[in-house]
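Final report, section 2: Outcomes. Of the targets proposed, Ribosomal RNA small subunit methyltransferase E is the one most frequently requested by collaborating groups, and we therefore present its record in full.
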Amino acid sequence: MQFLYHPNAKDALIELDSKNTHYLLKVRRMRIGEAINVRNLKDDMLYTYSIQNLHKNLLTLCLDSKKSAPSVITTRLHLLWAIIEPKVIEKALPLLNELGVWRISFFYAQYSQQHFTLNMQRMQHILIQSCQQCGRSSLMELDVFKDFKSICEAFSDFYAFDFGGEDCRDLDSIKADIRDNIWRVMIGTEGGFSPKERARFAKIITLNDTLILRSESACAFVASMAKML
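The predicted structure is given below as tokens.
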């Protein structure tokens, strides 16, 4: 664990819940007076606290110092991801978080299963756990749009990752088209995009390969590309 998450990190004193108290005392075997790094995942600051005391099985931490320590993400990748099975999305989130994906906007595509419902609270918890492990200083942004039309109205300028476009390994052409360090890429479901959705695309990128990627694999591939832009 690179740091401990606490929503009130920056306060002079913070109290840990029973779960984190157990983790520090029983798993990490920390003692009174020892120091631990804490983040609130909102301000890019790294706060160093010392364990002050244990009262009623809860630890109190005292702020010792702070410093600016943001994660370095050169290209902010914004995925527009058609909703697939929630458990698959949840499994992919830690990897995408480690790869520095800035934001994911989910939407119900024509080939999405309309009964799928995303548990945003659970997904945020997964991201917090991932940030603690990989050291990321900011929490990935997540939101949901009701359909393909609404997400296109919100974000008119995006690439679609689909068959029949330009080879996305041509990084120079992509770099030239990025605005404000934000690169938006739409990823479809396992069944891809419908003909009506494809008609809306202005810019298509593809692997020009015979292999077909799963939806979550396509997200991971695009996230890896963004690291090189």
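The helical segments are 18-27, 86-98, 120-134, 148-154, 171-177, 195-198, 215-226.
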